[in-house]
Amino acid sequence: MSSAPSPAPAPRAPTPVTRVLRLCLHALFAGLLALAAGRAVAGSSPRAGWVVAVCALLAAVYAAGVRAPAVGRSARAAGMWLAGMGAVWAALLVLSPDGLWLAFPLYFLELHLLRPRWGLAAVAVSACAAIGGFLGHSGAVTPGAFLGPLLGGAVAVATVLGYQALYRESERRRELIEELIATRAELAVAERGAGILAERERLAREIHDTLAQGLSSIQLLLRAAERTLPEDAPAAEHIARAREAAQENLAEARRFVRALTPPDLEHGSLAAALERLCSGAPGPRVRFSVSGAPRELPTPYEVALLRIAQSALANVVRHARADRAEITLSFMDTSVALDVVDDGRGFDPAHAPSGDGGFGLPAMRARAESLGGLFTVESGPGQGTAVAVTLPLPLEA
Asked: Which parts pass through the membrane (predicted)?
């Protein structure tokens, strides 16, 4: 036996089926003890007193083990209890041939409480003891003396092993069901989070594309009107105030857009978010670089470029089987570009699956085109993949 048994898992509450099986085993053991004692008394056996005393002792040892919590938790305690019961049962076998019948419930106890190897050995020893007790009392060697204990042991082994197999299958199904429930809960949380982020992005894009752009246009028109009027014109003061109000509301609209920024962009620039994305990517080595002079981008642009980079890098990790990848953010005079290149196995863009089950290309293309950008994919089997998106910068960023 091992010197330090591994910690056992927390015992599960007994089910109604296990409770019924335990009660049946207790009733069987008590009934067989009563049968042995009753037959000894009814048959006026000269050893009736001893048989009754040994049956009472065996019943006391059995009850003590049933009520002891350590027997069900420790293999050592269970072995000691079964050894004590076996010794008392051996004495009963010597005194009465009816003690043979107690071998059957003992088989179940040994197989249930001991490790499989030791349980089978204990069943074999008990069967030999039962056969020896029967031969000692009958004085004749018959096939029944061997078949009874051996068949009883075989039935007990088959029953216990079958029950254990069913129990393990039931536990596996229970674990799968619990895992499925937990996964569904996590998926629901993720979907709610994704919905919140998508709504924040939509609101930020709508505010930027409608309210902020409209206020910016109003400010430009008012500034042009202000330049065409003399400084002392009565309407010049009103136009100046209107332009200041438009400027304040434009600043407020931009603050709203910033407040709706995704968490990935809350604590830094787009370049910093992309660098964190590359450093935390599993699988291939991912390098990040910036080309040109960085400049502040409108929030919808930053969100779109970050989401496209996340989708493209996720495709590299899941599908490309690449060793290296590189993300480049390029700032130009009138546009900003994002390139994601890998040295993976590549694919044929003309036959790429569409929708969520494919490479996510339609979603990336839709993000780029929603901002008037250009989205391209260059790839081929065994040639790696290059994803590029170019967004034209607005006049007022």
From this structure: 20-41, 48-66, 86-108, 120-140, 146-166
CA pair distance 283, 260, nearest whole angstrom: 31
- For residue 6, the model assigns a pLDDT of 40
Q: Which two tokens stand for residue 397?
A: 């960023």
Q: How much is the pLDDT for 373?
A: 92
- Residue 252 is which amino acid? E
Residue with token string 């929603």: 370
Between CA 78 and CA 59 the distance in angstroms is 16
| Contact of 327 with 340, CB cutoff 8 Å | yes
Strand order of the β-sheet with 324-331 is 285-291, 324-331, 335-342, 385-392, 374-379
**Domain interval for residue 48:** 16-141
347 located within any domain: yes
Helix 299-315 to helix 270-279 angle (10° resolution) is: 10
What is the distance between the alpha carbons of residues 331 and 294, in angstroms, rounded to a whole number? 6
CB 304 within 8 A of CB 370: yes
- Distance CA(293)–CA(311), nearest Å, equals 25
Q: Tell me, yes or no, whether 26 lies in a domain.
A: yes
Cβ neighbours, 10 Å, residue 102: 25
Question: Does residue 86 lie in a domain region?
Answer: yes
Token pair recorded at residue 324: 């290296």
Q: Which residues of the chain have pLDDT under 50?
A: 1-11, 355-359, 397
Structurally, the chain folds into a number of domains equal to 2
Q: Which of 91, 110, 141 is the last residue of a domain?
A: 141
308 found inside a domain: yes
pLDDT at 5: 41
pTM value?
Answer: 0.43
Last residue of a domain, one of 95, 113, 141: 141
> What are the residues whose beta carbons fall under 8 Å from the beta carbon of 200, sequence distance 6 or more?
260, 261, 262
